[in-house]
Amino acid sequence: MTPSLHKSTTRGHANHGWLDSWHSFSFADYYDPARMNFGALRVLNDDVVAPGMGFGMHPHQNMEIISIPLEGELVHKDNMGTRQVIKQGDVQVMSAGIGITHSEKNMNQDSLVKFLQIWIIPNKQNVLPRYAQKSFSTDELRNKLLAIVAPMGDKESLQIYQDAWLSMGKLDQDIELIYEIKKNGNGVYAFLLEGDVTINNIVLNRRDGLGLTEVDSLNIKANVASDLLLIEVPMEW
Prior knowledge:
Jelly Rolls, 1 helix, 237 residues, 7-stranded mixed sheet, mainly beta, 55% strand, Quercetinase_C, 2% helix, Pirin family protein, metal-binding, iron
């Protein structure tokens, strides 16, 4: 299938004052029938939250929700009694299952919070809600693609109810890597946080996205120092 290159400027955009959000896929008032999802990947939002502001308590059901802070500190509260702070280097996952209510707020009054909000459609419905988070050091991500999220049963990564993997890497200039598809039939959505990379002969710049299907591997070269996120998901679920 033809690769889908989503340049950063073609994303949906909404600025609510307290929240400045870029949407890789249709979300809220942004609707593009050609960008409803990439397989089981439903939402990839690039959010900036103003000092002291955030998302008040709101519900979710039957969705795997992953938050990746890029800058600042975010306070999470939910109706399970969880209260946690996540910051750069942390990754948060929630299985909404039968229903969860939560809030996410910028805990600082003088600095922004920047984070990715990712929703993946689960392969198991109506599970008991769950929350987990884990920290990953720069050294763990240096010049490799580390699985930070994986299917249930993986003990090294955070786990979700889907045959999906999220991998991150902080790549030095001229580093070349091969990413092998972990499950037959899965596709990969690459999202470049910072830098400039070439993936299967396609150049990505900062905040570009690239969907690849019907491939066995990705050939990746960092043209400059780059931060890369790969989201491997089933194309059918």
